[in-house]
Every structure is written in structure tokens, then in C-alpha cells.
Amino acid sequence: MVPTNRPSRPVAERFSLISGIVCLGILFSGAISVAQPETFGIKFSPLSTAGKAVTAPDSRYIVSVYQGSGELTGAKWIKGNRVSQLKLAGRNKLTRLCFFTNPSSSGKSAGTWVQGFGTGGSQALRAITDSAILNCRFEKWVTQVGDKVLPLGLLNVSFQKKIPASGTPLIDSKRNIVGLILQPSSRRSAYAIPAQAVHRVPHDIGDHQKLVRGWMGLSLSTESSIPRITRIWPGSPAEKSKLRENDILVKAGSYPTARYPDAVNALFYAIPGESTAIEITRGDKRIATMITPTVQKPGN
Questions:
Q1: pLDDT tens string 228-264
Q2: Structural domain count of the chain
Q3: 153/294 Cα distance (integer angstroms)
């Protein structure tokens, strides 16, 4: 359930990821497909922690997941005896995604990324490591853990045995990349960053070296299971779009928002300066409008 007895707060202030969980088990290996995306081992600097990486949707970058809380200055990309020093292009602490300049002169993508994933039911997937294909299955979206609302929806993926390293790509039956392993959620399951988030973050990497949140100037109630607007900030994009207090957000972009955590996930994908379609209910009326978020206020 959504936490109760808390004051209404701007959505942009309520973000933090769940803490890490130790994984156990033994790898389930299989035959390697020649069409699979190429994965690389990665060692982060300066702590020398390890993970996996793959070419990002924008092939100028290599993307991985950095679980460390300290400074990240760069990384080494390792494939067999080949080692490349990577230059950090940008990091997003919210999602743990980190992007590095691709050292490949061709700039060619190592795999095709879907635009969005996770809207349907359970689906068979495979995790691609350096030496094996691991069978796994997408089970459901996770937008809340206990009373903690996540900053964006994660994929919950079940494995037969051991869970691969953070940054390992997941592919569907068409060999398209649908997400990256974030961290284990239990002995046989893991959370994964969906492909749509990997598309979203590089929007701001070139200009800001980090994710820049879209600010709409509205607050949602944390005391209600539905995303009810409790405040409209004067002069905000929400006010300009004629939204009102007590309106109920039912859709943002392509994301239905039946619950408060759904709305938090949907608003993660709002990009500053780009119009987002919004649908609300006001009494017995359903109203569609457009809203153009701005760069979020400092400190939010």
C-alpha cells in the first residue's frame, strides 16, 4: 500500500533506490547465439568494482550499472586480452546508470534496444553474459517495495539459478535488448532497469553529464492510493495547462497512472522542454491536455 499519514510533497522530492541485496546460486549456461549483443566486463575507477556493459541505444556510448555510492571517475572495458580505458560521459545516481564514451571507431551498435518494455504479462527472456545465455523470465513491474515508492518502475526478473552481474543485458525472443540487471531482489530474482530508462537518461548526458528531471509544478497526495493533485505551483507548467487541485492523474505520456507509484514512474519520463500528453479526471469528466515540463528546481 502507499504510505499514509505523510504530508503532500512534490513528486520530484520522493526519489531513492532500494539498497543492494546479496545474490546466491550457480549459473545456468546455454549455447551462445551469434546474434546476441556483445557484452564486456567493466572495472570501475577508482574502486575497481566489477560489472558488465553493453553498447547503449545511442552507440556513441557504452552503458553499465554502477552500484557504488562513492566517486566514479572512469572505467576499463575488458574483452579477453583487449582492454580499453573508458572516459565517463555521465552518471545518474537515481537509476545507477552510467555512460562512457564508446572507444569503437565504427560507432556501430552491438544490439537493438526496444523503445519500451514491460507492459504485458510474464515473458521469457535471456540474460547475455561473456560465456553463456541464462534463461530467465520477466514477471512483473515493481514500483513500490514495502512503503518505499521507487523513483521509476523496475522489471522483476526470475532466474533458474544464479543471478548475473549488474549491467548484464536482457534480451527478448527477437534478440532485442529490453533492460539491464540492476541488483538481486531475492535468491532467484533480480530487479532490472527497463530499456525505456536507458533511452531516457542519455537525453541529458551531452549537455549536463547527468539526468535532468522535468518539473511540472504539481504535488500528489501520498495519503491516497490514487494520484490526486493536492497542489499546483503558481506560474508552473501545471498551472499553464489548466490543471487544478483535486484533479486525478490517469495517464502521463504512454503510461496509465491508476496508483500513486504509477504516476511517479510515468513522470520520470517527462523531459524538460518536450510536451507530454496528460489525462486527468475532474469530477465525472475526463480531460486531455498537454504539459511542457521545465528543468527542475535546484535541490528538488
A1: 999 999 999 999 999 999 999 999 999 999 999 999 9
A2: 3
A3: 22
| Whether residue 272 sits in one domain with residue 230 | yes
Q: Of 155, 173, 200, which closes a domain?
A: 200
Region for 69 from its dihedrals, namely left if φ exceeds 0, alpha if ψ lies in -120 to 50, beta otherwise: alpha
| Torsion sign over Cα 19, 259, 265, 189 | positive
Q: pLDDT tens digits, residue range 181-237?
A: 999 999 999 999 999 999 998 878 877 778 888 899 999 988 778 999 999 999 999
Helix (H) or strand (E) holding 171: strand 169-171
Is 52 part of a structural domain of the chain?
A: yes
Q: Is residue 115 part of a domain?
A: no
Give me the CATH number covering residue 53: 2.40.10
Structure confidence at residue 246 (pLDDT): 95
Mean pLDDT of 160-177: 93
| Full strand arrangement of the beta sheet holding 229-232 | 9-10, 218-220, 229-232
Neighbouring residues of 174: CB distance < 8 A, sequence distance ≥ 6: none
- Tell me whether residue 89 is in a domain: yes
Same domain, 239 and 193: no
| H-helix segments, 94-201 | 195-200
Entry pTM = 0.82
Which of 208, 229, 253 is a domain's end point? Answer: 208
In this structure, which amino acid lies at residue 292?
T
- For 124-143, write each residue's pLDDT tens digit: 999 998 778 999 999 999 99
Query: Which domain, by its residues, includes 245?
Result: 212-295
